[in-house]
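Support case: user asked for a sample of complex input and structure output to validate their parser. Sending the pair below.
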Amino acid sequence: MLTFWLRRLAFTLLTLFIVSIAVFAVSELAPGNIARHSLGITITPDQEKSFNAQNGLDQPALARYLRWMIGSDWQAARLIGRPVTRLRDAATGRADWWEVGDAGAYYQHYSLDGETMLRVVREPDGSEHEAALGPDAWQPDATGVLTFWGVDRAGRAAMWVKGRNLAELTLTDAGWISVPGAPVRYLPLQLGLLRGDPGVSFLTRRPVIETLVSRLRNTALLAGLAFLFIMPLSLALGLLAGLNEGKPLDRLLSLFGLVTTATPEFVNGVFLILIFSTWLGWLPGAVVLSSDTAIFENPSMLALPILTLTLVELGYVMRITRASLVEVMRANYIRTAVLKGLPYWRVVVRHALRNALLAPITVIMLHINWLVGGIVIVESIFGYPGLGSFILQTALFKDVFGLEAATMVLVLLAVVTQLAADVLYTFLNPRIRYG
Amino acid sequence: MTARSDRQPPFHPGVYDAQAKLKQGRLSRREFLRLATLLGAGASAAYVLAACGVPAASPTASAAPIKRGGVIRVGTQVQAIDHPARYSLIGYDANITRAVHEYLTETDRNNITHPYLLESWAASDDLKTWTLKLRQGILWYQNGANTEELVADHIQFNFSEWLNPDTGSSIAALWTGFLTLANLEVQDKYTLVLHLDNPKLDVPESLFHYPAQIVHPSFDGDISTGQNASTGPMVLTEYKVGERARTVRRDGYWQNGSDGQPLPYIDEIVHIDLGNDQTAAVAALQGGQVDTIYSPTVDSYLALRNDPKIRVDAVGTAQSRVLRFRVDLEPWNNNDVRSAVKKIQNRQKILDQAYFGQGLLGHDVHVSPVHPEWAPLDVPEYDPDGARALLAAAGLPDLTFKISVGSGWTDVVAYAETLQQDAVAAGITIELDSMPVDSYWNIWTETPVGITPWTHRPLAVMLLPLAYIAGPDGKPVAWNESRWVDAEFSQLLLQAQGTLDIDARRALMEKLEVIQRDRGSIAVAWWQNFWDVWNPAFQNVQPHPTAYNLWREVWYDPDKQA
């Protein structure tokens, strides 16, 4: 059993790794331009170049991938010669990177002319003051050029070169301005996914984790409720049809299942909106989240999305359950049990059901994943800000950090649900053993 | 409104000239009002002058007493924003901060411009010196308290942002060739003087260009933090990209409502992101979950126009879908090829199929019949044989090309599809390169042939310099997506921008229109109508042709709830 779990864990990590590479590669190859998306359609080539440099987008794909995976703070610490750390601003709640200096102080740097480095010192009590560094702050690099590595005012590790008075286009208090004395190289700082930091989204310009949490919560709510509603219903109807094979009830249920499965969700959804919202006026036709708690104040908003998902899923799971039960009911051991004189319901519940549920469980578990990440169309019809639409938006934006994080969540979910399915198998059929 | 100064400055001579023309019937009343206010006469004075000395009745206040309170819920999209000067969409960025950061002037729904944060403006006779006087006593509001007064230095800061090429603002193009920062003089605490290099008529209207929202010099570079000082009636308290943005009423706003208390009447505006597809927004409006939706599509209009629970208003615009060709690329550098493609537009059919007939026909010029300086042209005919002949002459008898199309704009798609069908008769093969709207905005200035949505602007002399001229460096301006620069056109346009007399300007515009029609880089098949769709409980809502949400005087009457 232990080997099974270990193997499963190794397999999970491998899957995550491969998917992360695949997503990175796809977003690399996909057309689009993050700088343009971020700064608007009117930017100049110079601004674009500057934006790419400042965000490390001009570095090779491998370097960017590694930075996303294992972070860059250790690399920056080596270049700077001091550890770097993230400090949170109490007022805005936003985090910023600083060097860890002497006596509990933190440092950031800038230069106005490329000759003198200025250090902003943040004392342990939060006060800040500035000091100019002497000429010995410059260190010769391998080729003898005098350079200085430090954390800049925007919280990136940066390299200045003495005597190089460059202009950097940067977003400051005064908007996009050219700053003389700009660094020549940048290393954006992040902790890396392995340490729980999926980076800052280009789409929202906020840490990915903030958006991901709220989107995941929305989706979990919709998918969870839909799951609780769909699965018992479809299993029960499937069993009912299976036990009444060939009878009118079976025909009716099968036909119903076929029709709902064959109708795509964008058709179902629009019909449901027209009937229940526009015409009858019973249920809200869209999910309008006017506040973070709106969904709990007015849960009826979720009724139509859940109903739409139900119509799509119901027939599918129902028909699999039915087919599986019909097959089991024809098995020899069932005939034996019946001939032995066991009561019919006892035969069904004790003997048929467990085996008949194996196939539907697999399907159901696969569909959890679909309910979380794949219901983009339903989310779009009802204007629901869920994980699916986040994935779509980040993909269109080429926001690789947002996309990676969301995909990792989905992969993790896929693996966990499969694991749950495996465990359920052993419960349903004790002959199944893992080892 | 606070009382405006009663001092009547001597009017610009052009105002008297225009008044004379109005009396002779050579100028419509609307054109006169526009012209007079453009030249600083002030709206009330303009009405008086328009009435030839008889004081016009002041606009009566609505009969019902105003009620306070209520929340406007808007179905829209909430996209990432940072600097207002870099806004490039009206609804998804500028409208959200519209009630927070204000403009120096305001153009109303009749395209008449009034002073706003300004108390008045005055132009010299040659239209080259403009004196802008700020209204006194407007207070910045930040972190829950009123701070300092708005002064001319703050406006200078905003100009420096707009004119700085590094800002990347579309405002810069409006002032290119007219104003440099060095020629902006802060005369005193409340007075700015613009010393322009060339005469410019539309200074007040340019100040209402949608990215020209005024920020404080302490602006932190990210408007979405809600931490920045602002002058507007509301403050931004929540901004979640892709989800919602919330603005709430502030205390001590500088304008009073009809009940003598500071505006606004409503407490809150919530902008709710309902995604790219307006189906959800329409369903939400019909179900009473939102009170209005931003910029309804023609499909939404058709779905809503007969709904008794919704109030629908229409207004004609200069908003269009512009089919444009990159003239720096083969084969579009050949005017015959461009002209041939223009000839395959069956305009009425396009309007019917793309927009259900809800608009005006276009003439392949970026001047709309709603513009005051519009010089009437004949609508070009559908002429596949002419197109074929032109292509044969150009040596491209089987022209095949791709049009980039944002698939989210159904009318753009229908336009392109209609073209595709009607092109066959001329031997032209058109392929549609469909992409999501976001992707289209990614390539809109780059794609060889594309259909770009252009928004309404109140004057043609404001639209044309955005996209059909070169900057001072000789390169096409930032939004010149077709790279088309024509020396004669640029010269005439500069002249038109400095021509006060509406007849003279129309004469120039006729030449400009003919040049653009005959050798320009664009095709305009139709002009869209714009609609406003509202929960009828909201009163005092005025649809604006540029879809600006100006809601400080909107109030909520729960008794009118359908």
